[in-house]
Sequence to fold (153 residues):
Amino acid sequence: VTNKKPAQASITKVKQFEGSTSFVRRTQWMLEQLRQVNGIDPNRDSPEFDLLFENAFDQWVASTASEKCTFFQVLHHTCQRYLTDKKPEFINCQSKIMGGNSILHSAADSVTSAVQKASQALNERGERLGRAEEKTEELKNSAQQFAETAHKV
Fold:
């Protein structure tokens, strides 16, 4: 996804050849061209899936079934966010991919929880600093009174 406005999202297929640590770009499509995501079998964990574009049909294989699920969740979320008109059809996909238990929602919940904890910690620290400032002011006043009394003597 680009950071220019309007944002443009694309899907890029890469391949890693045996014995190599790098990836090679194979094909690329704009997200708007995606018409269908086919998980092939929602009852079986397999890394294979198909993507149907405007003028192309492409078979894909993820590294693992779990990575396929993650890819589908990110792809579904990206389509919901960036496509206003024709959204692709997700077929033969496990229901958890479109549901509320996606990794994106879990990540958002984790971030929200971390922000709430940090906010609470900051509030508590602010209260302690406020009490320390009050105590410092009391000590300062007491020291001034002592100095005035000592100066008189």
Observations:
- The first strand starts at residue 10 and ends at 15.
- Helices lie at 65-82, 95-98, 103-152.
- The chain has a mean pLDDT of 85.
